[in-house]
């Protein structure tokens, strides 16, 4: 088994860890180990990119068919008086 040391841990965070460990009846080390285990073992549900995240969020609403506007030639650039 490997071990790690966490330096510069915020006092408030350490206190919350201590309280959470006490609530679950275990040591801070065991609580931290459980938090890491449960967090890192859960599969990430995030899609690989923003477009996929948006697509998944709105998929249940159904699609929309938009009419494509006809293409026109590019207009000449305006000429401004000097």
UniProtKB/TrEMBL annotation:
Designated name of the protein: Antitoxin FitA-like ribbon-helix-helix domain-containing protein
Taxonomic lineage from the root: Bacteria, Pseudomonadati, Pseudomonadota, Alphaproteobacteria, Hyphomicrobiales
Superkingdom: Bacteria
Native source organism of the sequence: Ciceribacter selenitireducens ATCC BAA-1503
GO BP, sorted A to Z: regulation of DNA-templated transcription
Alphabetical list of InterPro entries matching this protein: Arc_rbn_hlx_hlx, FitA-like_RHH, Ribbon_hlx_hlx
Domain called Antitoxin FitA-like ribbon-helix-helix: residue spans: 2-39
């Amino acid at each position: 088994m490997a071990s790690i040391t966490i330096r510069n841990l915020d006092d408030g965070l350490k206190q919350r860890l201590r309280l959470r460990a006490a609530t679950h009846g275990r040591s801070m080390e065991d609580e931290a180990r459980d938090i890491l285990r449960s967090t890192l073992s859960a599969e990430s549900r995030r899609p690989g990119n923003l477009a996929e995240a948006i697509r998944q969020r709105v998929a249940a609403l159904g699609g929309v068919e938009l009419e494509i506007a006809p293409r026109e030639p590019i207009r000449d650039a305006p000429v401004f008086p000097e």
